[in-house]
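Lecture notes, structural biology module. Today: joint structure prediction for complexes of two components.
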Amino acid sequence: MSPVDQSRAQLDEEIDDFVARETEELIARGVPPTEARRLAWVKFGNAAIVREDARAVWRPLCVDQLLQDTRYAWRVVRRAPGVAGLIVVMLAVGIGANTAIFSVFNAALLRTLPVPSPQHLFLLSEQAPVPVPQRFSYPAFERLRTAVAAATPIAAMSRVARMQSRLDAGSEREAASVQLVSGNFFGVLGLAAEHGRTLVDDDDTARSGGRAVAIVSDRLWRRRFNADPGIVGHDITLNGAAVTIVGVAPVNFTGLWLETPTDFWIPLSLQQDVRYSQNYSASDADLTKPWVLQDQVSWVQLVTRSENRAQAMAAINAAFRSELETRAQTITNLQSRARFLQRSVALDTLERGLSNLRPRLMTPLGALMTLVAFLLLMAAANGATLLMARASARRQEIAVRLSLGASRRRIVRQLLTESLLLVAVATMLGVLFAWWGGTALATQLAATSGTNAALVAPLDRRVLAFAVAVSTATGLLFGLFPALRTVNGISDISHEKVAIGGQGAASRGLVALQIAVSLCLLVGAGLFVRSFRELAETALGFDRDHVVTAWINPRLGPHAPGHVAQTKDDEARGYSALNERLLTATARLPGVTSAALAACGLASGCRSTSDVRIAGYTAAAAESVTFLENGVSPGYFATVGMRLVAGRDLAPSDTEDTPKVAVINESAAKRYFRGRDPIGQMFGYSAPDIAVVGVVEDARVLSVQEAPSPMAFYPLKQRENLAFSLELRTAGSANRLVTDLRKALAVTEPDLSVERTTTLAAQVGHSIDQERLVAALTTLFGLIALLLSCGGLLGVMSYSVARRASEFGVRLALGARRGQLLVGVLRESLTMVAIGLLAGIPAVLLLLKPASRWLFGAQTEQMTTLAASTAILFVVATASAALPAWRASRVSPLAALRHE
Amino acid sequence: MSTKKPADRVELLQGTLDLLILRTLRAGHEHGHGIAKAIERGSHDVLQVEQGSLYPALYRLMKRGWIEVEEGTSDNNRRAKFYRLTPKGRKQLDTEISKWDALTSAIGRILRPAANEGRS
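The predicted structure, tokenised, for the full assembly:
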């Protein structure tokens, strides 16, 4: 029972009590009982009014009316569920698309770091006359930090690295993102641990090697450790090194890199233990010794926090200056010394964190936002016309209400409540759609930038506020206009007349515009889908369907060059033994017909190119003579399905001790050995010491999009035995082999880092992720635009038919045939469609030129696509115009005349 | 049945009912019927309480926190709701009374200026 109902029940009790007392009193004075009861009621007066007045005290009138309006609106909506459903779907799609795109926009461009006062965080960036790698050495970091300690704190961090982790004793290895940071990192960010502690300075000391401790992210802690607060003290291994978890990072904090959420933070001084070796620049350094001790390896980025950017910058530059002067002393060339001394440090804002993705997303996301905003406008305008169509069917009802004394404001409010109710339902659906769509889009966008990237696009407060703001604006826009127009069009019942004549030129123009836009989007969708299909079916020069590939990393794990002094030869021998073991173990797997290893996987993003000298080839001016290169084991070509066209394959007998040999591709043969038999020709890096022994067919080894370029394949044994890709050819199911291979590797090489096991087809598929996304998005938006423009057409024509019902009635009464009316309305609709198409076709032709840059394959199909899209649009539009046309032909002449 | 003829009755001025209810409750708690009776009797049946306005007025006063309600048993053993002044209501009553006095004397001065002049 609601509080109001309860109060009402109590009031009824009191009224009864009052009447009973009054009756008793009257009886006591000698009035007969039946008469007394009547008189008591007379004295009390109108109980209904009392109840009304009392209710007004309990609940303000406007709330009461709002509830009444909502109930009434619900009844009206239920009376015409088709129209309401259409409006809700159009608005939901519009609001959902806007919210989804905005959630990605927010995640990529707006969201600030979840740390206190993120605007006070800065990244130190070195300014120099020539571009310099933005990295510092660890000793330089320590010197700088000590020098400016009084002015501003400085923390250091590595890049986020993928590491093999074992999170529980006996569990399987899994990949984890790890960042190495200085002990004061969390302190400078202003973050406290959710459980346990964060890192402290003592954890990260270069001299004593640092403590083997780690902070785990809240995300991983919840996902992998079920948010167990007992995690503190838990031991894990990262790239084979044992570390102890001492704390959990705060909720939502996933690190400073936007698209690579960090799982663990460990001290920088553990660099050697976890074999961190990426994003560094070194000169004269011994990379096998701990980097934290060496001035020669630059590998950390510096972060500072200050409320006064200028002051902090001045302090840091003073310290940096003396650092520069010390280092400049070793530079003998006066000119380069002067240039070196021109370097300085600037402070870049870190408010929104770091991202490689952000600059690339700015334009596409901006374009998407504009597009979806336009779609929403279309949806709102179409919703408005549909509402007007319905309102004109309700003119009678509204006129009656006006005559009975309802105020215009009250009617407008009533109509507005109805449209807001529709918007509310649409918003809920839209947010659901956005929740799903935004996450999917963010994942896809991140995937186009690299295999490990992940962009999280949560529906945070800002996104929800955006959704509410957008939908409220939509509701007012699409509700207020028709409501005012309806009410102003009706004076009251005595003057109510049905207007005939030209109206809605604006809404007709809008429909034509929508048709034009839909045509552009449909043609775009058609072209991008076709282009994607062509990409997906391009002949690659290797066999993607029967090959399974695994990304391995022999540099990680016990095979890696490590603490023990290992010579290059020791290392190569270790890798060679690993390669042998891998090949024999995997060749035994069921279905495998051959196995091979390569330094670079196919379509994996791995690329290695070198300048070469070719005996007997004179390069043209400014021509760079380069080879794309790969090291492969014998049998590689047969395994991946590349065809040898001349000479011999690389053989097991080609080893480090025999003369250097290579197999080149046809492009190389054509370009560098034109008119000569390439077999037996020599080329090389410094001296031409490599003999060409064979030629293979061209293949798109880098990606589907990139045409083959000159390439050389060397025996793996002559390339230090470093293999990062394992290829297996199967006679059976590739998918089953993926599972078998994963299991087999975990058993036979438990310490080998295996990044990914997949079919070659899937790997190739990843390299066209971006094209897939573009094709999917244009198709989605094309369909949305098609839906919207048809909804708009339906709305405009329904409105027109509803307003002209009596005209049709009169015409029928005067002898017009129903078929004539049907054709008349259809012709009117098709005029709008035709205008839209005529406007759309030139627009498409205009856009084709800039768009073909992104299109792959034959351009001759463009006209076919245009014709097909035009036909589709025409057919669908005609179908949606059929309903109002049919309705026009069903008008009853009598009803229409009585109306007048 | 009222003892006076309708012509002798005076309609309550807007807003005065609240004051009268508060004044009636100063003597102690009372139920709705009792309040109406007390006002009529106290005014020698000149003032007639419109039942239609009594209950909304009671709820309004409750909402403002000037009176409160409790379940109780009346003299003839009938269960009823009794209204009672809260400390806040008591204070309010004092302000209302002084406001009323100020109002009536001001109106009196305007209505009978001669009397005032004659006295001076």
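Point to remember: The CA atoms of residues 125 and 346 of chain A lie 5 Å apart.
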